[in-house]
Amino acid sequence: MNDKRHLLKKLARLAMTSAVALTFSGVVSTAVLASEKSVKIGYAVSKTGQNSAGAGITTAPNYVLWVEDINAAGGLQLPDGSRLPIEIIEYDDRSSSEEVVRAIERLATQDKVDFILPPWGTGFNLAIAPLMDRFGYPQLAVTAVTDKAPEFAERWKKSFWVLGGGGDYSESLADVLAEANKSGKINNKIAVISVADGFGIDLIKSARPAFKKHGFDVVYDKTYPLGTSDFNAMIAEAKASGADSFVAFSYPPGTFALTKQSQIASFNPKVLYLGVGVGFPVYPKIAEGKMEGVMSLGGVDVNSAAFTDYAKRHMEVTGNPPDYWASSVTYASLQMLQQAIERVGLNRDAVSKELSSGEFDTILGKVKLEDNQLRKLWWTGQWKNGNFVAVAPATREGAVSPVIPKPAWQE
Amino acid sequence: MITGAKVSVAIIAFGLLALLPFFLEAYGLGLMIGMLSYVALATAWSMFSGPTHYISLATVAFYGVGAYTVAVLNEGISFPVILLIAVLIGLVLSLAVGVATLRLAGVYFVIFSFGLAELVRQLITWYEVNVTGTLGRYIFLPLEPQDIYWLLLGAATLTLIIGWLVRRSRIGLALRVIGDDEVIAAHIGINLTRTKLLLFALSASLITLVGAIQAPRWVYIEPSIVFNPTVSFLTVIMALLGGPHRLFGPLFGVVPLFLLFEWLSANFPNHYSIILGALFIAIVFVLPNGVLEFLDRFRLRRAKT
Predict the structure, then answer these.
(1) Could you tell me if A249 and A311 lie in one domain?
(2) For residue B79, what is the nearest residue in chain A, using CA coordinates?
(3) Are B225 and A92 in contact (CB < 8 Å)?
């Protein structure tokens, strides 16, 4: 057995060496090519399958917009001031881990692209992380909310995690609620439901201790399976629980159903916090314009000219407005890549180093990564006067103070 | 009939395939991994569904269980042992499921098998949420793509060998009789349930093994990732294209379809689904009995004229 393993390892090493040699020769030839006419950038996103809705709202449109913006300006600027147009190579990962892994292998070794943009979703970003590391590509993982980001940044030195972890969001929410409780706006009871999927579990797990720490009593705590569409029983029970705050760590279809069914049941808690989907451009339509006061993850600083301008261009180029959470972060991550290339050129090691140490001027303002993570983010937002504005961290410039209690649905 | 020549061709093919990782770069190897995985899946699927005509959409239920077993056990136990445990779990699960459901026939079985994948997925989700309190699991195993390739090559070869042995055995013959006419099969003394159960369990265990081998490639695993129903559908379609009642039929379905999907997703990423749908319709109309059958008939016709 041991002998066999040894042999396997030997064979593996031999193959690795040849693979490395091949990759290396690839890098060289790409560099030569690139200096001639264009910068090749590749990505795989879910155009079909279960992830296509999320990828189609947050990830793919921003890639299109970014490339459009750059090519309209004459191309990607290099340290010597010259500009090269971007050539895009895109694949559909069909919402399958195996496909996304192979697409990255293809981009790295077959197409020999200069840079690879990340796919959509926590799972897929993790699936490609070891490969990106092996092939030496920097990975700016945006749509990957994970509490293990510090650990991953340590494991894969060229990986960057820019949307925070579940704990950041639930602890921020607990802070907002504690503030309202202290000023006597809400009682200390919370009703919470969560979707039984990666995201919901991550948030509820960190929310329970955070609520407790602030002296809250979680009087109702239920988990529901992904795909649940009837929330009437849960709404009725939450209503009867005596809690002033209702929190749902939900996914888009659930978020939409909860909004509709709360309206029908005239369930209007003083704090209504729902999960992913509240920040989607389609949400006002779902809530029939009555979304005032609904809280969720993310938020934007609507007074920022950079964001307004970005939202306008997003609308013009892709035909849809950006979402109010990860869209602008996605675009900002691309700006970081762009500025890193502008400073150090197309060498991937140098770009990775610049990404982890440099400061960048993005639509989110000036940003600098800490241990390969973006920490300057908006954790909690609320619908206010037709915009989903950021309310926490309250200390950051641009934060709006939350409206609690939430106004009634009918107005 | 098996001849020495055929055996040596098979051995040479196997040897050449085993040497491939030394000549392929990562993408080529990735392509081979994907293809081998479907060869094993479609062949294992055909072992049961070919002769019985029971269209099973439960492939991903077992495939996912295999992957999940690796995710749960990957810390502390050596990989070969994990694979063995995965196969055993697949075996037990398929026996339990088979006893309860192989009396179903036709469309009822199809619906049940589709529901099975969802059932397993929800059970695991429920367990993870309420008992362990985590949903995503990580697999950090020091396996290189070529290791996975060799393991899959082994699994695919094993599946073909078992498939070949089954076809020559009494039980394989019995299964074909059942597929042709259950009433007659019962009358000539074939134990219907036991025969179906055995083959179903064999096929499911092999599918579980494939899932377990492939899992380390994905690093992060959660139920919605490993119980992706597309795997079941693709397996069926590939097997049907090649012809599930022949040993090498599925192989001839997998290779062209897999390459076609790859080509489509690279060249028409925005129209993939539409083209795919049209192709499936074309396959069903033009090649209802699979590629091999079509070729045979074509040859026969030419011989006659």
Answers:
(1) no
(2) A5
(3) no
Closest CA in chain A for residue B221: A123
User: Does some domain include residue A409?
Assistant: no
Bond from prior residue into A405 cis (ω within 30 degrees of 0): yes
Domain count, chain A: 2
Longest dimension (CA), chain A: 76
Contact flag A96-B273 (C-beta cutoff 8 Å): no
Complex prediction ipTM: 0.80
Note whether A110 and A257 are same-domain residues: no
Distance from CA of B294 to the nearest CA of A (A): 30
Between chain A and chain B, the number of residue pairs with CB atoms below 8 A apart is 130
Q: Are A176 and A192 within one domain?
A: yes
Same domain, A133 and A187: no
DSSP label at residue A57: I
Maximal CA-CA distance, chain B: 70
- A190 and A294 belong to one structural domain: yes
Domain that holds residue A120: 2-165+304-368
Can you tell me the distance from the alpha carbon of B263 to that of A115, in angstroms, rounded to the nearest whole number?
A: 22
Report CB contact under 8 Å: B31, A205. no
Query: What is the number of domains present in chain B?
Result: 1
**Is A325 part of a structural domain of the chain?**
yes
pLDDT digits (tens, 9 = 90+) for B156-167: 999 999 999 999
Higher pLDDT, A200 or A181: A181
Measured torsion, CA atoms of residues B226, B228, B230, B232, in degrees rounded to the nearest 10: 70
Q: Phi first, then psi: what are they for A36, rounded to 5°?
A: -85, -55
Statement: residue A28 has pLDDT above 50: no
What CATH code is carried by the domain that includes residue A85? Answer: 3.40.50.2300
Residue A375 one-letter amino acid: R
The helix (run of H) or strand (run of E) holding residue A33 is helix A2-34
Model pLDDT, residue A27:
42
pLDDT for A89 equals 93
Residue-wise pLDDT for B209-236, tens only, equals: 999 999 998 888 888 888 988 899 889 9
* A59-105 residue pLDDT tens: 999 999 999 999 999 999 999 999 999 999 999 988 888 889 999 99
Q: Which residues of A touch B37 (CB under 8 A)?
A: 98
Cross-strand bridge partners of residue A193: A222, A248
Domain hosting residue B146, numbered range: 4-228
Q: Which of B130, B146, B217 sits opposite A15 (nearest CB)?
A: B146
Chain B partners within 8 Å of A99 (Cβ): 265
Question: In chain B, which residues have their Cβ closer than 8 Å to the Cβ of A101?
Answer: 30, 217-218
